[in-house]
Design a protein that fits this description.
Layout: H1 9-16, H2 18-47, E1 63-70, E2 73-84, E3 89-97, E4 101-109, H3 113-122, H4 124-127, E5 133-135, E6 150-152, H5 158-165, E7 170-178, H6 188-200
Helix pairs in contact: 2-6
């Protein structure tokens, strides 16, 4: 037991590293400001749209969240537009997940999923080949991407997508952007978020 409580030289180096936490604090503020700016742009994007949302949906509702333990990694996100109840969910989430990626994702669950699925296939040409992925997980809260986790939405995979989506009561469609991708130009992440939202929009409009 005593051995497991011992601190290694690497442990002590990390504990003494003040610079990392200063940098993390600065970067967290940048992420917050980016999400706030994206929210402002999404307000403009939704202002002239009639969204196919559940009864009781408030078009002004927004939520900013910051945490430390999404599978042990820090994260920040904004949900807008958003609507959550026990039986229905309707949200566009813009998530920064440290150590992984940025993801812009539509989360829907409940009675309207049938309509969203119908829109997906009747407007397939507007959705396919736009760097979107369908989550293969039955949970809306799985945020990893890759083989066995997500399926790219391309025109060649229409039948595969139909098989996955059949009879599902919840759907998650997202655009995943690795941090290795060039995101250094001012406004790039906001532009990517707006592009993802516009690509998803055909599913959630009447």
């Amino acid at each position: 037991m005593t051995e497991t409580l011992a601190f290694s030289p690497e442990d002590l180096r990390l504990l003494a590293d003040q610079d990392f936490f200063r940098k993390k604090a600065v970067l967290s503020k940048k992420i917050t400001h980016t999400l706030e700016a994206l929210h402002a742009q999404l307000i403009l994007e939704t202002s002239n749209q009639v969204l196919l949302a559940p009864d009781g949906f408030n078009p002004q509702s927004v939520q900013f969240v910051k945490g430390e333990h999404l599978e042990d990694y820090p994260y920040q996100y904004v949900d807008f537009p958003r609507y959550y109840t026990r039986d229905a969910k309707f949200a566009f989430r813009s998530l920064f997940w440290w150590g992984h990626h940025v993801v812009f994702s539509l989360l829907v669950e409940g009675p309207l999923v049938t309509h969203y699925r119908r829109n997906f296939f009747t407007r397939f040409s507007e959705v396919a080949n736009r760097q979107l992925c369908l989550s293969l997980s039955p949970s809306l809260w799985e945020w990893k991407t890759g083989a066995g986790l997500t399926m790219e939405i391309t025109s060649q995979r229409r039948s595969e997508l139909a098989a996955v989506m059949d009879r599902r009561s919840a759907l998650k469609i997202g655009r995943y952007i690795p941090f290795e991708q060039s995101l250094t130009e001012p406004g790039t992440i906001i532009q990517e978020g707006i592009h993802a939202f516009r690509s998803i929009l055909p599913l959630i409009t009447a």
